[in-house]
Amino acid sequence: MSILFFRKKPEIVKPMSISNNDLLNLNDKTAIVTGGAVGIGLGITARLAEAGASVMIADLSEEDSNKTVSDLTSKGYKVKACKTDVSSETDVKNLVEQTVKEFGSIDILVNNAGIYPNILVSKMLFSDFDKILAVNLEGVFLTTKYCSEQMIAQGKGGKIINITSIDAIHPSMMGLAAYDASKHGLWGFTKNSAIELAQHQIWVNAIAPGGINTPGVAKATAGAGKIDPKMMEAFMAKIPMHKMGDPDDIGKVALFLASDMSSYMTGSQVVVDGGALLS
Ligand SMILES: NC(=O)c1ccc[n+]([C@@H]2O[C@H](COP(=O)([O-])OP(=O)(O)OC[C@H]3O[C@@H](n4cnc5c(N)ncnc54)[C@H](O)[C@@H]3O)[C@@H](O)[C@H]2O)c1
After folding, report:
1. pTM across the whole model
2. For ligand 1, mutation pick of 42, 56, 60 (most atoms within 8 Å of CB)
3. Which residue(s) pair with 162 in the sheet?
4. How many Å apart are CA 65 and CA 61, to the nearest integer?
5. Ligand 1 lined by 35 (C-beta under 6 Å)
């Protein structure tokens, strides 16, 4: 390491000069949570809102968004919704405009919206592959592009949290080849945008969930076209904690990454999987 690096006397920051409460306080922050109406997105929306952030839910489903807005505003939280398809550039531009109009800024972006249809490659249509990439990867590009432009213009830095998956690291089951391609891609996008945006004090990190109980998983494991129960059994058998996670397990880690608790982190991926990747 260069001697020059040490020429300036390092500033000594008093340990614990900020209280835990202040570190977690998001009172003056505005967050966008894509797919924030149900499931993992709702877990994240609820934790950020409880920490004081104004949260804009950017979800395809107006019905689920309205229900969540009504539930959370009745608790005194500042939550609104803007119907958004993250794969539409027009929708994403509108989302950014509406969020700034309603709340005055964008400080935190959580890229959570994602789809995971289980289709074998040999049965997959080009349109299936295209759709999965459009939502899970191109959607994140669009929100990151327009939100980071806004964060840079504000000049106060920001936080971007991308919800990847353990499938961004290792495949969890057959039928997820396109999904795994999108999530591996998202992890690459996270790391490179972290390098690029660091000059603007915008920190970009990822959370890689394992199996989490959500409406999306309930749909994938029941009814027509459901995942083979034997594959689900094998998946469950690999989890050392012997249970699926809850959306709040991800919400709590998202709060950590959205707050000053994670002040020296960028380009990291936090695995939250009950130990599944160990086996
Ligand atoms: N549940 C899990 O076990 C698990 C594991 C690893 C990663 N993930 C990831 O977590 C994220 C959320 O998963 P979930 O299980 O909560 O999903 P979910 O299906 O339960 O909820 C997803 C939400 O996203 C919204 N959405 C879907 N497409 C959208 C689009 N184009 N634009 C805007 N909103 C859209 C839906 O309306 C819904 O409200 C996804 O990115 C998923 O890949 C989930």
Report:
1. 0.95
2. 60
3. 111, 206
4. 6
5. yes
CA 235 – CA 39 distance, rounded (Å): 20
Mutate to test the pocket of ligand 1, among 214, 231, 236 (most ligand atoms within 8 A of CB): 214
Question: pLDDT per residue over 239-263, tens digit each?
Answer: 999 999 999 999 999 999 999 999 9
Q: Which residues are catalytic?
A: 179
Question: In Å, how far are 27, 37, 138, 269 from 251, measured between CA atoms?
Answer: 17, 13, 23, 15
Mean pLDDT of 30-34: 99
Yes or no: say if 194 and 204 are a contact pair by the CB < 8 Å rule: yes
DSSP H or E segment with residue 20: helix 20-23
Q: How many residues does the chain have?
A: 279
Neighbour tally for 176: CB within 10 Å: 22
DSSP class of 13 = P
Q: What percent of the chain is predicted at pLDDT more than 70?
A: 95
Domains of the chain, start order: 24-278 (3.40.50.720)
How far is 182 from 167, CA to CA, in rounded Å? 9
Look up residue 31 and give its two tokens.
């967050």
- The residue-averaged pLDDT of 212-220 equals 96
Q: Is 84 exposed, middle or buried (0-12, 13-18, 19+ CB in 10 A)?
A: buried
Tokens for 39, please give them: 């499931």
pLDDT digits (tens, 9 = 90+) for 163-175: 999 999 999 999 9
Residue 56's alpha-carbon distances to 3, 53, 277, in angstroms, are 47, 10, 32
16: phi then psi, degrees, rounded to nearest 5: 55, 40
pLDDT 10s digits, 45-63: 999 999 999 999 999 999 9
